[in-house]
TrEMBL record:
This is ISWI one complex protein 3. Residues 1-10 have a biased composition (Polar residues). It comes from the Eukaryota. Residues 1-25 are annotated as: Disordered. It comes from Australozyma saopauloensis.
Amino acid sequence: MVSSKASTPQAEVDHPAENLRIGTPNERSALSKLTPITLPNDDLVLSLQKQYPKDERWKTFRNDYQYIYVMNWMHQCRGYVRLGGELFDVDLFEIELFNLVYPPPLDDMHLLLHKARLALLSKVNGKKVESLVLFEQLFRLYFGVETPLGGSEDDETLLDNSVLFDDLFIDQKIEILYLLMSEVSLYSDFRDFIERSKISPEMARPLQLFRAVDPQKPSHLEEYVLVFDGTAVYKRVVVAPSLVIPKKRRLCPEDPEEAFGEEAFDAEKITYELVYKSIFDLDAFIEELKVNRNKKKNRLILEVIKKPAAVSNVFEYENRKRRILMSRRKENEMARLLATRKKSSRLEAKVKQRNEEEQERKLRELEDLQYSTSRRSQRNYHILENKLKSDFTAGLSRGERLNLRKGANFGDEELVDFSPSRALTVEIEDPEDANTSHAVPSNDIEVTVPTIQCDALPQNPDFEKTNTNDVKITQDLKSLSAIHDTNNGHSIVTQITPNSTLNGISQDGAN
């Protein structure tokens, strides 16, 4: 009977895991059978440090407080954006930040990094963002252009030459995530999530292993904190300003805060230094502390990090991340082998369904783009409207402002022009003495006819036909009109505008 071969991979010769002095033999053996020995992100950082020795970015980005905040937030609070079921590991997250995922995913939404930043932006937007295409534009809309993404406030749509998230350095990507996380942490539903999850303040804070004042530097407070679910330790140094304390009480100020100011009681500087982040660094750090184990600092730190449960937790994380990397490589190999085979109808249906989903996603992207653009246009419209509401009558005389107000009331500036130049002159002449001018006697009756404003005088054919008198209608834009009564000898003086009517004015002067 032929024995079957074991599927368990064989351990590599001279694997660093075999030389570890912590952990059980089974844990060291399991780690030695997994690859890679050093993770891709660590290899890349070491390579960049050698290629660019003057660039401090590759030496300090892990010591930045924003980096620590983002990684701890993802460990504890990713359930707020419905990613609690996703596996999180600091090194795997760094691999995604460095774009070192191999093989590259067919869809970017398969990566935790893209899921997280899209979910965070949806919280800020107040509406679900369907795709990463709008990430940069919406981020600039809410956080401005003074960020690593840059941009211009006048941009209404995405520009081809605009900076994308994937084009940034890792420390700049961390800053973008830090801004999003710090913003959503202020929302009321985030506090509700903390209460539901029963995350106490003690659990949210890093575990403090040791804290003491440096005897050589009294203004320096030294702390060792355990972070990232117990897989890394940082050394934190808080530098406080030095205070001069008077020897006598009468020399002390009554109000120290007012006398010294707030700056005297705040920390001048807080720095972080990464002590270890991998099982190999932990082993070296423990051996370093064992040299002077009688010191209080070393003894207190060893009591925590050397516990079997703490060491097993680090081994578990190391094995898990390597198994994930190996499974990705195997999936890529299987996909390459299946690519040469004939596609079945089931696979073709999946491809068709994927294409339809892609088309629907593009439509949703277009709707989101129109939504964000309309919001930006509405904001610009309100700004312009507020500018137009300013006083535009400066420099005008009182008469000009009066005409403007009248024009605003009537709807047209021409309607407020009551000058006699728009009047018509109506004269009734005696047919026997048409050339004789009649003076207006003292008993003239002056009648005021209501002015009806219109653009032209209505044409009435009855005015051209009269029985006793000839009615002559002439338009004189500068004089008044006079209607003379030849029977009674009275003159009726009135003013008729172009819109007035002659109905109701008797030719015989009886009225």
